[in-house]
Amino acid sequence: MRQKLLALATAAALLPLAPAWAQSMIQSQEGIALQNEIDQLQSQMQQLQSSSGGNGGSSLGGSSSPAPSNSGAAGASDQGVVANLLTQVQQLQQQVQDLSGKVDELQNQVNTQHDATEKEIGDLKFQVGGGGGAAPGAAPQAGAAPQSLAAPAQSAPAPEAPAPEASAAPTDPRAALKAALAAYTKHDYATAQSLAQGIVTQNKEAPEAYRAQYLVAQSLTAQGKTQDAAIAYDSTYNMNRSGTYAPQSLLGLAGSLSAIGQNEAACDTISSLNSQFPTPPAGMQPRIDAVSKKAHCQ
């Protein structure tokens, strides 16, 4: 009897290890199912311990009297149950270890894809900020990107024209965002961009800044400024990588990258989107599939 109880104690000591691994490494339905099964096995082990303790004194022996001889068959049955439970525990522990390895592998893939995308965005920022004319891959967008850079230098009156609107722009972030959204609805994308950018620049800590940054990206896309839009979408995503507009920002970034011929970076971004948001917001999946098809993602 004492050997059986020691076996029970060993199994009970092994069981708590699996939940700790599952809670720290596995955040999936499969991991939760394993956790429930392990909890059930632990409950069974505790019941067997209580049952064995009641038949023979203390659960770990000591000065208890020997078990009656007519309990031999029951003891053999208990020992078989214990052996079966130990086997199940070992199998569950192996499954938890395998799942942990898969989680680590997927996380490494996501990190690699994100780093590659960040490098592409850095290259785009360099092209738009100072080296855009020398970038061979930016030829399809040569008419859009230089406009945002060269317009102030080519015509002096251009910056002065929006001055009356800028002075009349709402200073309150909420009112400014409302005005920017109204301008976007009226297809006045330049005004929407200007108002939204003002919120981000002057009230970056305001709650409205996150929505305003996404509106900047949307307005740039509507104006055909694809390179600038890619940078704006990336900035929106980095403002809050789990926020309301994070999946839309990744999709917008992928679409912008594909539009300027950066299909590999676009596919990496789509992969990150699918990994981080396996259940995208309603209506997004067809758009994700369309961008993936356009970029020739596998």
Q: Can you tell me about this structure?
A:
With 298 residues, this protein is an all-alpha fold. The chain is built from 14 helices and no strands. It has helices at 2-14, 17-25, 29-56, 72-131, 145-154, 157-160, 163-168, 173-185, 189-202, 208-222, 226-239, 246-259, 263-276, 285-294.
Strand and helix map with partners:
Elements: H1 2-14, H2 17-25, H3 29-56, H4 72-131, H5 145-154, H6 157-160, H7 163-168, H8 173-185, H9 189-202, H10 208-222, H11 226-239, H12 246-259, H13 263-276, H14 285-294
Helix pairs in contact: 1-3, 1-4, 2-3, 2-4, 3-4, 4-11, 4-13, 8-9, 8-10, 9-10, 10-11, 11-12, 12-13, 12-14, 13-14
Percentage of helical residues? over 70%
Q: In angstroms, what is the radius of gyration? A: 31 Å
Q: Biggest sheet, in brief?
A: none
* Helical run tally: 14
Beta strand %: under 5%
| Derived structural class | mainly alpha
Q: What is the 3D form?
A: elongated
Q: What structural keywords apply?
A:
single chain; 14 helices; elongated; 298 residues; mainly alpha
Task: Summarize the entry for a quick read.
With 298 residues, this protein is mainly alpha-helical. The chain contains 14 helices and no strands.
